[in-house]
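[job 0417] fold request received: 6-phosphogluconolactonase
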Amino acid sequence: MAMTGRFEHIHDSAETLAAALAEELRLACEAAIARRGRAVLALAGGQTPLPLYRRLAAAPLPWSQVLLLPTDERCVPHDHPACNVRALGEAFAAAAGMRLASLTTEDGDPERSERAARDLLAGYPEPFDAVLLGMGGDAHVASLFPGAPQLVEALDPDGPADACRIDPQPLPAQAPYPRISLTAARLLRTRALYLAITGDKRDVLHRALASGAKNARPPVAAVLDAATAPVHVHWSP
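[job 0417] inference complete; emitting structure tokens
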């Protein structure tokens, strides 16, 4: 990780953003496989990154040497329409042999899922080869929601836990579920950090980064400010 800093990439459409990020993640996988025989990516949920995942899934990679895991998951059963890992699996359907890990148990129980996520991540102590984040209109990343009672601990860049339960307050109306999220400490342990945003979320990001709050930084600012790996922000209208 010789190169550090924050870089902004502006695209003229969501399609060109998807193409650029798919290529970045493909190259990250190729480099990791060449270096140590496997690649591990942590990927955002939501609708914005799904087109780039489908593009990436079509790449001629040795997919059996790639492990994908979500940056966060809703605590719902895996056959539930709101399940993040289910959506990831569908987006990567063309990536034959790819391994997909879940942060939640099959039934989505929050307490058991938190333990299961920590056990899973203990088996992958090395830095991720890439982390891709999205961002909400409230400046949350992964499921690190402003106002969640676990937020201070979850945003500690030196915290000991790799994953934790998050209870958004209030629960989002469109997805009113507890979450399991990678902590900032685990998200930051990566060789490269990407943020994909569209539309007016660029303004949300710039306001968050300009916030003068010292003890209550918006989650996206708290994570990006603590990064030691290169940070690449990709935006399209």
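[job 0417] notes: The mean pLDDT is 95. The two ends are 30 Å apart (CA to CA).
[job 0417] exit 0
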